[in-house]
UniProtKB/TrEMBL annotation:
SUPFAM superfamilies: Lipase/lipooxygenase domain (PLAT/LH2 domain). Keywords: Disulfide bond, Membrane, Transmembrane, Transmembrane helix. It is found in: Membrane. Residues 798-925 form the GAIN-B domain. GO terms for cellular component: membrane. Residues 1229-1244 have a biased composition (Basic and acidic residues). This is Polycystic kidney disease protein 1-like 2. The gene is LOC118424999.
Length: 1308
């Protein structure tokens, strides 16, 4: 299968007299998506050719396919819609009258004002003795008076002074206006001006506030009309409809009106569904003899209708105008197509949207209520199938079930008609068919999902993806294991790069569908889903910044994303609970649960920011909040005032009675959020434990309740409160099965009844609750508790008398000005009072507790009355979760509260922190460890054996590498090069190849030395017995020249670019004269490669002076490479210098001892850090700083280092500094590699470089005869052997600080 890429490019060209102009799309229009979206005013009027080019590339085979499609688009000029101030009618007193026109739908002045023509005329509607008038402005002047000087009829403004005419009182003059422009349909409007008979009354008119296009009112939107505040609206007022189409049934003032009063009229959507003109009149009766009126007139255009029903004007469009083909099939196996008849609309072209709702069983969609107490947003999973300008879809997939497709036909101005098709029954595919589809569809190389995503088309991308996810949910609901498909969908979603709102909705829908059944959600699927959800929340936050999105859109996306988060948290709990029930305390699954849960809560933190920072600033309500909830988990996000010192009670909506009470919000926020930042809280309640992965989650037997304080986009830590926080949470139904005793009995007044109980949990509080008829027996009740023996009135451990006095009862303010009270017939012994220890709850030797109770006193015994009662004995513990550190439930800083009972747990927490100086390790019983059954912990055994097996295999490799290093060490002689016996002419050249990637070379390296007196011949550095110039290698060569070169000034270095990898990175070259001992450095740190750096393979390198050598850059490169390859224990196993006495086998052995000793210390201190509290925040200059590590954790690290380091450092020291065993010179000579032995038969050396001589000979002399070459060869052997030994001894001299047998001590 080959990797392919797809790209899309749109072009739009304008046709002018059959000539196509250049590209006309502006730069801000995205032209590389599968859909081309053109904002308003993008194209001028005219004819355009629209072309889309799709390119598919398969680089592996060099194949490219290009597809082109074209169509013509004609853009018509928009009609002019003009309105006058006051709309249809207004009342004016005698005086100045202004008539002003404006273009209702041309706010951006798309038509230049000098191209507009205004045609005014006036006529008398009700006018005593009207004058004879002509048309145009003269008619207006005759009826209303002479135009004032500031009038400008050609720009839409008339100004009359009716008091100068004078205009008769109670007259009506109709002012008409026609506005025209070339190429546009003209706009017509009028206004009736009523002159009031009472000059003391002011102007009266109507202003539109919403849905304000009088030439095209949108029927499915609300109409909102108001009387402006500048109008004196005192006195009785009424609203009436004075004009409506003949078929209009009239207004139902009870059901059709949202709001009606003296100043406002709000009409519900879908009231004005009959096409035609409507006129709304408002009448004011401040003076009953001279009522004032204002009118608003608007036109409703008919919604799009099927062409064949154009004459019928049906109230509803029948479903048979569209059909699904075929009428039945199998999801993901069969393809479907939807075809509709043509529709007609008065305005122009129509857009068609095809969609349907997915409603698989078992899905509990979240509800979002924002802002505040507003109506909850109804969330639906909607699959958008297709959107376009044609009345049919391409071949599409449909989800299983009874599918009702909805077709939305909309006009350019927002009017639409909806068609609901008859249900289509789609069967579910088999599991194998689902797997086959998801494998192909989500293939990251050639799958349609990622190809469509690369073309930036979210609607088409997620249409089939949501369908596949719905199939996953449907099969899971039928009990089929679809874990493999869930993994593939979740993995695909994690790779999505979200681009728009449709992508957020599609991703959220996929995630919530595939995670709805937690038993089929693997650890990887949880992690991938949590990543996707966090990414989607972040994208939603980015898009909604500064309130840039509609509230409805944000609420819808939040509902779907929150449903997904609830599913992931539930899956984490179910999988972790299964692991714990199997006795597993650590596993890959639990780690995945931990990662998924942590990231999901991070996603919920982003949700806080979306509402607190992005959405809430647009509202003034001080108590603004957002409620987001499912049946299992509930989140409330509330804005707060950081200076509020009043008591706060946080609850969630619905049937939940959990709450968190804080003394004041200012005590929570402290001084950690100042300077006008956005402040709020997140209150969370979950009826399951999302942190089930924690090893001590067995402690949690109630709902999980949490409160987080938000300051902008960060969460403030809350601890060290002077007054505790009260938390009330419901117990789980099973939570008291092992922690409660229920005694139903009866007792005579004055008698003592005894009951025997055991404690079940250490460090828990013990409560006693009594239920009996208080009205019949209003006597005090005395209780005694004693360990080991039954109590008596004189001998007991603890005692109490019930009822508790009313002034001592615990009270919490509740909703609707009520209060919650602790029970007067309940006795609570706190944790530190009863002090239940581990010995008390030992299952083999439990401590006996006896509880005695007596109704009344001994004097009541004579009455002989019997009291029936029920005694509840229960234990309670309070814990909180350390999510950021230990991931364990802890109890420090929390105490059980007096409102705890058999249904709820009451906790009072302040989160104080303890410190410790030394942490004792866990005891290690070696004898017990060896006698234990190793199969009880196979994971640990497998780990130890796997490490040792890897070590053995590594030793085999390291031993071979060490042997190769022996061949690399020492000084080489160039083949055929005759050594000059004069030491002042001999030079030791050491070449350092860098450690860059692919720094080594297969090419032949040649250099020339240049001195102040002479220059050397070209020297090709070769050695047939070893590999040269490998990455990080150091290669030395002994060469000579005819005469001393003098002071070296520079050198020339090049290579022949031969072999399969000729590129070479040279670090430096060091040249040492054997006679003068002068060492010269040539620093390079450059590439010799045609495909790296500057592309050169031939360079001149000058001599480096001290200033060059001591530069930080050069020192850093040299020291870092040397220390990484020799001093770094792990890295040097592979990069060890060939001349180092510290072999690879020894280094690998040191790594093994370090790893095993680290494992041992981990066992010694496992879990010890969890026994201590996290560090208290540090306060500095008003800031709170949370230390990343506590003192006990720091001590554990120090103690572990003290145990591990000395032993391992000693072993490394012995290996690195021990010498080698002395051998006789004869054995040493025999043990040298073959490259130091001269063959008896002379070998002829040839070189590919014509500049390199086969032997050395003095400059200017004839080529020596064969006999002379033999003599020189024998001399070469003696000199080379001697020189090699000398340099080898010098290389190791000074390093042997320990005798050779020190190595054996290290190995022991």
């Amino acid at each position: 299968m080959k990797l392919s890429y797809a790209s899309v490019q749109w072009t739009v060209r304008q046709s002018d007299t059959q000539v196509l102009s250049l590209e006309v799309l502006p730069d801000d229009v995205i032209a590389d998506k599968l859909r081309l979206d053109l904002p308003p005013d993008t194209l001028p009027a005219g004819l355009f050719m629209v072309q889309v080019t799709v390119t598919m590339e398969v680089p592996e085979v060099g194949h490219t396919s290009i597809g082109v499609a074209q169509t013509w688009l004609e853009v018509f000029p928009f009609p002019i819609v003009v309105t006058l101030n006051g709309n249809a009618a207004r009342t004016k007193p005698l005086g100045h009258v202004f008539v002003t026109a404006w273009l209702a739908h041309d706010s951006r002045c798309r038509i230049p004002s000098d191209q507009l023509s205004y045609n005014w005329t006036c006529e008398a509607v009700s006018y005593p003795n009207p004058p004879v008038t002509s048309d145009g402005i003269p008619a207006c002047e005759a009826l209303l008076g002479t135009l004032e000087a500031d009038s400008n009829p050609d720009r839409g403004t008339l100004h009359f002074d009716t008091s100068l005419k004078p205009v008769p009182l109670d007259s009506v003059v109709k002012v008409r206006l026609v506005v025209a422009a070339e190429g546009h349909e003209p706009g017509h409007t009028y206004i009736d001006i009523h002159t009031n008979g009472d000059p003391s009354l002011g102007e009266y008119r109507i202003v539109c506030s919403f849905n304000c296009n009088p030439g095209d009112l949108i029927a499915h939107e609300m109409l909102y009309l108001i009387i402006p505040w500048s109008v004196d609206n005192s006195g009785p007022n009424s609203w009436t409809f004075v004009e409506a189409p003949a078929d209009f049934p009239g207004i139902d003032w009870t059901n059709d009106i949202l709001l009606v009063n003296d100043d406002n009229l709000k009409v519900r959507p879908n009231v004005f569904t009959v096409p035609g003109y409507y006129t709304v009149r408002a009448t004011n009766y401040l003076n009953e003899n001279f009522p004032r009126i204002g009118e608003y007139r608007f036109l409703v255009i008919r919604n799009p209708v099927p062409a064949r029903l154009l004459q019928d004007n049906p109230a509803e469009i029948p479903p048979d105008v569209c059909s699904v083909r075929p009428v039945e099939g199998v999801s993901l196996v069969d393809k479907f197509c939807i075809v509709c008849e043509d529709f007609y609309d008065e305005v122009g072209p129509l857009k068609v949207d095809f969609k349907y709702k997915v409603e698989p069983g078992g899905v509990d969609l979240a509800t979002v209520r924002f802002p505040g107490e507003s109506q909850a947003a109804a969330a639906d999973i909607v699959v958008n199938l297709f959107s376009g300008w044609v009345f049919y879809t391409p071949m599409i997939d449909l989800a299983p079930g009874s599918i009702i497709v909805e077709v939305l036909v909309s006009s350019a101005d927002g009017r639409f008609s909806t068609v609901q098709l008859d249900p289509v029954f789609v069967d579910s595919p088999s599991k194998d068919a689902l797997i086959a589809f998801t494998e192909t569809f989500f293939d990251s190389r050639v799958g349609p999902f990622f190809n469509l995503m690369s073309m930036r088309s979210s609607v088409e991308t997620f249409s089939s993806a949501v369908t596949a996810a719905s199939v996953v949910a449907t099969l899971a609901n039928n009990g089929i294991d679809i874990s493999q498909a869930t993994d593939m969908v979740a993995d695909g979603m994690a790779k999505v790069e979200l681009q728009d709102y449709d992508g957020i909705i599609g991703l959220a829908s996929c995630i919530l569908l595939v995670t709805v059944f937690p038993q089929y959600v693997s650890g990887n699927a949880q992690v991938h889903s949590s990543m996707s959800l966090k990414h989607a929340f972040e994208k939603l936050g980015e898009m909604s910044e500064n309130n840039n999105m509609d509230v409805e859109e944000v609420n819808m996306a939040t509902a779907l994303l929150f449903t997904g988060t609830a599913h992931v948290l539930k899956a984490s709990e179910v999988k972790a609970l299964s692991e714990h029930e199997d006795g597993v305390g650590f596993s890959n699954m639990l780690e995945k649960n931990k990662e998924a849960t942590t990231r999901t809560f991070q996603a919920l933190d982003v949700l806080d920011d979306i509402y607190l920072i992005n959405m809430m600033p647009a509202y003034d309500d001080d108590n603004l909040f957002a409620d987001i909830f499912t049946s299992k988990i509930h989140v409330k996000i509330k804005r707060e005032d950081p200076a509020d010192s009043s008591e706060e009670l946080y609850t969630v909506a619905g049937v939940s009675d959990s709450f968190v009470r804080v003394p004041s919000f200012s005590s929570l926020a402290g001084d950690g959020c100042l300077g006008g930042k956005t402040v709020g809280v997140q209150f969370l309640e979950s009826n399951f434990n999302p942190f089930e992965y924690s090893n001590n989650s067995r402690l949690v037997e109630s709902d999980v309740v949490g409160l987080a304080v938000k300051c902008d986009n960060s969460t403030l830590p809350v601890s060290g409160l002077s007054e505790p926080i009260d938390i009330l949470a419901r117990r789980e139904n099973k939570s008291l099965d092992e922690l409660m005793y229920i005694f139903t009995s009866s007792s005579r007044l004055g008698d003592i009844s005894l009951f025997h109980i055991y404690a079940r949990r250490n460090m828990s509080a013990m409560g006693f609750s009594l239920d009996y008829n208080i009205t019949l027996f209003p006597h005090d009740v005395t209780l005694w508790l004693r360990k080991h023996q039954p109590p008596t009135p004189d001998t007991y451990g603890w005692t109490a008398t019930l009822p508790v006095p009313e002034n001592q009862l615990f009270t919490v303010p509740w909703i609707n000005e009520t209060s919650l009270l602790s029970s007067a017939y309940q006795w609570l012994l706190l944790e530190d009072e009863i002090a239940i220890t581990d010995l008390d709850v030992d299952k083999y030797n439990r401590t006996d507790y006896f509880i005695g109770l007596r109704f009344g006193s001994e004097v009541d015994r004579a009455r002989g009355e019997t009291v029936p009662f029920t005694l509840y004995v229960f234990e309670t513990s309070c814990v909180y979760f350390q999510e950021d550190e230990t991931h364990l439930w802890q109890s420090d800083g929390c105490r059980v509260g007096p409102m705890s009972n058999i249904t709820h747990i009451h906790c009072r927490c302040d989160h104080l922190t303890k410190f410790a100086g030394f942490v004792p390790p866990n005891p290690l019983n070696i004898r017990e460890a060896f006698s234990a059954n190793i199969l009880e912990n196979p994971t640990g055994l497998i780990l130890v054996l796997a490490v040792f097996t890897s070590y053995v295999m590594g030793v085999i490799w390291a031993r071979k590498a060490d042997r190769k290093d022996i061949a690399k060490a020492g000084v080489g002689l160039l083949p055929g090069h005759v050594l000059n016996p004069r030491k002042d002419c001999q030079y030791l050249i050491t070449v350092y190849t860098g450690f860059r990637g692919n720094a080594g070379t297969t090419a032949e390296i040649t250099l020339v030395l240049y001195g102040s007196q002479y220059e050397s011949p070209p020297l090709t550095l070769r050695d047939d017995s070893r590999c040269l110039f490998e990455q990080g290698s150091v290669d030395s060569f002994l060469v000579s020249t005819e005469e001393p070169l003098g002071v070296l000034t520079h050198m020339r270095v090049w290579h022949n670019n031969a072999g399969f990898s000729p590129s070479w990175y040279l670090s430096q070259i060091v040249v040492a004269n054997r006679a003068t001992k002068v060492t010269t450095y040539f620093l390079s740190n450059r590439w010799f490669a045609i495909d790296e750096g500057d592309g050169k393979i031939d360079r001149i390198i000058p001599t480096s002076v001290e200033k060059d050598i001591t530069k930080f850059h050069n020192l850093f490169l040299a020291k870092s490479s040397r220390e990484m390859n020799d001093d770094h224990l792990w890295y040097s196993v592979a990069g060890r210098p060939a001349r180092s006495p510290f072999t690879r086998v020894q280094r690998l052995s040191c790594c093994l001892t370090l790893l095993y000793s680290t494992m041992l210390t981990n066992i010694m201190f496992f879990g010890r850090g969890d026994d201590f509290d996290p560090p208290e925040p540090l306060r500095f200059a008003g800031l709170k700083i949370n230390p990343p590590i506590s003192l006990p954790q720091l001590m554990i690290g120090i103690q572990s280092a003290v145990i591990i380091l000395p032993v391992n450092l000693l072993i490394v020291f012995l290996f690195r500094n021990s010498g080698t065993q002395k051998r006789s010179s004869g054995k040493k000579l025999n043990s040298e590699p073959d490259r130091h032995k001269r063959p008896k038969k002379e070998e002829t050396f040839t070189s590919d470089n014509p500049d390199t001589p086969s032997v050395w000979y003095p400059r200017g002399r004839p080529v020596p005869i064969q006999k002379l070459r033999v003599v020189q060869s024998s001399l070469d052997v003696r000199e080379s052997s001697k020189t090699h030994d000398e340099f080898k001894d010098n290389a190791v001299r000074g390093q042997k600080s320990l005798p050779w047998w020190g190595v054996f001590i290290g190995e022991l």
